[in-house]
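pipeline stage [seq->struct] | target=BioF2-like acetyltransferase domain-containing protein | organism=Maritimibacter alkaliphilus HTCC2654 | residues=333
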Amino acid sequence: MLRHLWMRTAAEVFARERPAQVLVSGDPKHPSACVALYAPPDSPGTLRLLGALDLGEPADLPARSDEALADLARKLWRLGVPVDLGHLPTDTRLISQLRQQKPAFAMIGLRTRDERGLPALALEGEWSDPAMAIGRRRRQSLARKRRRAEANFGKVRLQMIAPGPETATEDMDLAFAVEANSWKRRAGTAIIQQPRQLEFFRLYGQRAAKLGILRLAFLEIGGAPAAVHYGVEIDNIFWSLRVGYDERFGSVSPGDLLMFDLVKDCVARGVSRFELCGKDADWTRRWSNHSRPIAAVRLYPLTLSGFGSLAGDLTALGLRKTRWRQSKRGARA
C-alpha cells in the first residue's frame, strides 16, 4: 500500500505532461515485478524512475524472484532509450540482472562516491531501551540540552499527531514552516521553495491521512514547534520522509531531542523499525544501525539517443571535476 500510494501520487505530480510508462513482469493484476518511468521535461529523450530522483530518494525495486527481475531488466533494455534509475543500492539484485541482460555494446553507468543510503534503525535488542542504547555520554548530553531548553525557552514535550483529512493540510503546513526556519531556506532546499515537491507531499499527506497512516511528530519547546518529522506508519514501521528544525532553538539540538523522544514513543507503541530514508548524513549516522551502499545508475542503449545521453553525461561529469579541481587550487592559494 505504501509503495502504491507513493507511485500514484508521483505519477500525478511529476508525470502530468506525459503519462508514466509502467513495465510489468508477470500478471499485470498481480505483478511479480514492476517499474514506473516517465519522461522528465528537463531531460528530453530520457526516461526517469518515477518517485525517486525528483524527491531525492534512493530506491530499490521489489520483485518476487530473480526470474521476474531478469524479465524486467530485458524490458528496460528493449526500450531503446536512456533510462535514469537514480540511486540504487549497489547490492540490489536488479543491478546484477541489468548486467546479465545487457545487449552487446550497450552500457551501464554506475557512479559511486562511497555514499550510503536508506538508513534505518531496528527497534529491537539494545534499542528496546533507547536510553541505554545511545550510551552514557550521549544520554547525559541530551539531558543537559533538555534542561537548557527548559531553562531558556520553556517546557519540552513531544506532540505526536495522526491528522485526519480535515486538519492534515493545516498540520502539514505547520511542519513545512518549521523546516523552512533553518539552513534549508538559505540553501534553497526547503520544501516550500520547491513547488512540485510541496505539491507532492501535500497530496501524499492528504491521502495518507485518509488511510490513517500520516504521522507528524513535533518537538514543542515553550509551546512553539522547534523540530518536526513528517512520516507515515504502516505495518509497525515508521517511515520518516521529511525532517526539519527551527534554528532559533539550534543551541539545544532540537532535532536530536525530537529523535530520541520519537524513538522512545515508537518503542512504547510496538513499532519494530524506524526508516530514516534518503541518503546517509551525519545526523542519520548518529541514530541508524543499518544502511546500504548506493550508486547512481543509468542505462545507455546502442542507439543514437543512448550515445548522445552518454556523451552529455560524460561532458557534465568532466565539467564538475574541472570545477572541483579549480576550487581545490583556489583553496590552497
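stage status: PASS
auto-comment: The first strand starts at residue 21 and ends at 27. The chain has a mean pLDDT of 92.
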